[in-house]
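forwarding from the other thread:

> can someone predict this with zinc ion?

sure thing
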Amino acid sequence: MFQSLCRKTQVLCTRRVREQWVRSFMVELQPVEQIVLVREKQDHNGPTMQFPGIWLRDNCLCDACFHRNSLSRLPHGWNNFDTKVKVQDLSVNVEQETLHINWSDAHRSEYPLEWLRERDFSSANRQRYLSHSYRPESQHWSGDQFQNILQKFEYRDLVSRDDTLAEWLRTLAIYGVALIKNSPLDIGVVKTLCNRVGFIRRTTYGEEFSVKSQPGAKNYSYLAEPLPLHTDMPYFEYKPSLTILHTLEQSVSQGGWNLLADAFYVADLLREKHPEEFEVLSRTRVDWADIGMDNGVSFHNIWRAPVINLDADGNYARINHSVPQRDSHFSIPVQRVQPWYEANALFVRLAQEQAVSFKTTPGDVLTFNNLRMVHGRTGYDDTELNVRHIVGGFVDWDIAYSRLRVLQKQQQQQQQQRLRQQQQLQGQKQVESKLLSQVQ
Ligand SMILES: [Zn+2]
């Protein structure tokens, strides 16, 4: 009796698994365009996945075409790549959920449908990939919106919890700013945060830097004077991307307030309301420079780039602005100089209008996107009893986005595992109750 029940369970389990997991697929080739279409049959209104033939051939996953350990395409196929390669026939292995293609060059390829789903060329899927896996889409904010978009994170959560770390990086990617609260008043906080992301970015001023009033300072930010809105280090081609400013001591005087504005929003205003000035600021290269010495090492940094830098899609890639670090060399034709000054003066005025001010307290760590935010501070009285001491450091976006993607993948895998366990448990319960009803 016991044996036969077991056998019966097994048969039922297998059938159930088939019903639940095996789906059927429609595959079709558009022969002229050589586009492969794949759709799940039971989902008639569902999206049709699209794959160009040439892309499928280029991305064959067999051992001759793809190196599994490095997850990279093997290069030799490109020594003589046949751009006219054609799909000869195609089929889906329903049990294994794989697409099979025989090619006109006598090659044969096999693609898991799960892998294809991730890479579907449909516009919705490309959008999903860009905003989820590539980079979260930025949301630009006006000064009035600052209180709504500012997110605060507890330092101890950030150093101990991966979900908080991911949320902080996502917030920086979307809004360009986030505030960390209750960090220890310890000189190592900036380095700890940088190491949590990956590693600190070294510059001509070393790794961490201390901002406090220094008599005879060689850099303008080391004076107690007001520091107008600017981005840090526009004179670098590889400009440090995330600024981390830890408040160790705060001036009790009236001043020392932080100023911050979303220069992407300012660029939006220009683009919309002042298109000519926008054009000038996004097309005129400005000479940014920093000449001096730090720790006994002389440097002479120059980078020529516009104030508003656009990528190939016309989106903002980077803002450069710093009055002290704009060189007196201005290598553009003379008739383009006056219009640039008009446009830049407008940019500065709009940035000032959109700037918010707030005063950090000891233990606060202000973090922001240095490719996007302009920041500054009001002046303050610096005396022996009234000190302001900020420790700063940088992390590069490459490192931060990489960490975010790794964390997101971990979260996704954990979620899938939980889902699978739930489904297994549900399946078992259903089989058991079916069996029980049959036995009864
Ligand atoms: Zn292959």
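The pocket of zinc ion is lined by residues 60, 62, 64-65, 107, 109 (CB under 6 Å). thats all i got for now
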